[in-house]
Amino acid sequence: MSGKREQWNSRIGFILATVGSAVGLGNVWRFPTVVVQSGGGAFVALFLLIVVVVGVPLIIAELTLGRAGKQNIVSTFSRLAPNTRWWLVGLFSLVTVFIIISFYSVIAGWAVIYFVGSVMGIFTGLDAAGLTQLNQQLISNPVIPVLGQAVFIFFTVLIVLLGVTGGIERISKIIMPGIVVILLILLGRTLSLEGAVEGVIWFFRPELGLINVNTALDAVGQVFFSFSLGMGAILTYGSYLTDEENIPQSAFLIGVADVGIAILMGLIVIPALFAFNIEPGVGPAIVFVTLPAIFNTLPWPIFWSSLFFLMLSFAAITSAVSLLEVAAAYIVDQRGWTRKAAAITMGVLIFVFGLPAVLSQGVLSNVVFLGRDILDFMDFVSSSFFLPISGLLIVIFLGWVWSTDIALLEIEKGSPGFYWGRAWSFLIRFVMPIAIFYIFITGIRG
Ligand code: PHE
Questions:
Q1: What is the DSSP string of 271-302?
Q2: In the prediction, which pLDDT does 291 show?
Q3: Where in the sequence is the signal peptide annotated (predicted)?
Q4: What is the CA radius of gyration of the chain?
Q5: Mean pLDDT across the stretch 339-345?
Q6: What is the ipTM of this complex?
Q7: Which of 1, 84, 227, 432 is most buried, judged by most C-beta within 10 A?
Q8: Is-contact 417 384, C-beta < 8 A?
Q9: What is the pTM for the complete model shown?
Q10: Residues with CB under 6 A from ligand 1
């Protein structure tokens, strides 16, 4: 990326690309799964709180750092704080990016397989029990999920190779509205199922007794993951911004879009679990069982199912591209490789590193860390630990090293008289470091 730095073509293009990064498996697969595992409404309430106090302010923070630095994740720090070691934070984010994209491609590979399976009609006519069994067979197979993972990585690399702006902006414009339409149809279907109301209540009723530090850790992890925070994706996208961009307003819109889709998804999956009597214990595969079960109650199940999993695969690609872009931009900038060499090499590495995760649902299912299989462990460690740690470091950097006063000047270029400036700066300097640190430390001990 030598020469003149690219900028977004239009405001809507930037917002859609960033929403494309944020909206992905985190909303469709991870959110309902974590809600189920962490006790329903209590988790949802905490999640919303953390969105407001940590999530949106951090989107503002990363976009601002990105626009001020106009560099990749590592050299942003060396440019804003020359002659310090803060660039190590960028390096840490890069490691996190690598772990996340590796396991992300595994789950996204399942979406690809489900797309192909839907077209072939292998899910039609099965009930929830049959679908659970078929899901087990599919994801524990030593070959099929590896193929899905490979296909997914192939397309992600291809898009990064071709450059992000043209292709990704265009795809996002079709995919995002498409997803919303499909989700609304599914929502109508779920809510009309018998027994669905209980699920809706479970989703919204905050059983406060269920809130503990682990729920909080999970909620922080989910916000970071879903908002693409803590690993330089938003920061990198911010580095392509123009000075006129109203950062706080965009951050708000991006947050609302991402949370909206997560909630929509929760309201589709969870009531359906109740209605179909599916054990919430099914774990990571929950979505891959519940949704086909809903499709099977609709006319043209093959059509809906294929369309949905195709959309999901694309939504995952727009997220994975933003991850790969973080690494590619760094390798191209700092190491002087061509974009092509960087993207392909990363693709191969991600594939190899993801293999233990993909096999952890079958042949390697005996390998367990802290009670989690490899896939689950990679997700847990990166989302609940690495992301918050790098988020914490970014906040400390912004609040105390680079200083929020300079940041506010940067923000005000495109948003004169940023009304919430003082509150934002207070959150960044005091509330967030203490909150993230506290949750984090008690979480480790707990
Ligand atoms: N936010 C994406 C999702 O919800 C995942 C992601 C995380 C993408 C971090 C980029 C960076 O699926």
A1: HHHHHHT--GGGGGGHHHHHHHHHHTTSSSHH
A2: 87
A3: none
A4: 21
A5: 91
A6: 0.97
A7: 227
A8: no
A9: 0.91
A10: 21-22, 24-27, 100, 225-226, 228, 231, 233, 319, 322-323
